[in-house]
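Ticket closed. Logging final result for YHS domain-containing protein.
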Amino acid sequence: MLLIEIAHPAGRLTPADHDLLGEAVVGLFLAPEGHAEETSVRARGATHIAFRELSGWRTGHGVPAADAAPPLIITVTVPRSWRDEAGGTFIGLLRHAVRRLDDARGWHRTEGSLWVRVVGVADGDIGLDGRPATGADVVDFLTEDFRSALANGSVAPPPAGKLLDPVCGMTVPDGRGAIVLEHDGRRWGFCAAGCRDAYLREHPAAVA
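Final structure:
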């Protein structure tokens, strides 16, 4: 669940700009390196990017200059637990995506013209396919196909020095700061606390 709305002054971004910025967001948030294909397919389907043109845009200085980078207000909506853990990362990725557009257009963005809001939706207020859900339900939905493949023994082992996240399939470095659990003699790594918690719900005997 990654819902991104990009608001800008009416007429200031072209359809080509929308395409460039949308592709930059997808490329940064859903980079293929280290992700399981099964999870990536589900994540792509649950990622939605839309643009909203707003008329009458004003700042404290008046109407934004027509030859400058247009101001943007980006709202990204995720489960609350994701916001608490990775809100800063989301903001950084969106900043980099906007920079790609600015570089392509030769725009110099003035300070205070890009705002990002990370909105966390509480459990029960998430409507997954129109049904009330929790952040854990979203994780389960995104990782269902990979977890089935792992249970069927059709997942390749991770490269040397990496650990496999048994929930989403990402490979993570096995080193200092890694989120790790051991269960039934196997060492697992996790890309985030959400995946670790999902594994613990199914395997409460796992230990750090």
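The first helix runs from residue 15 to 29. No further action required.
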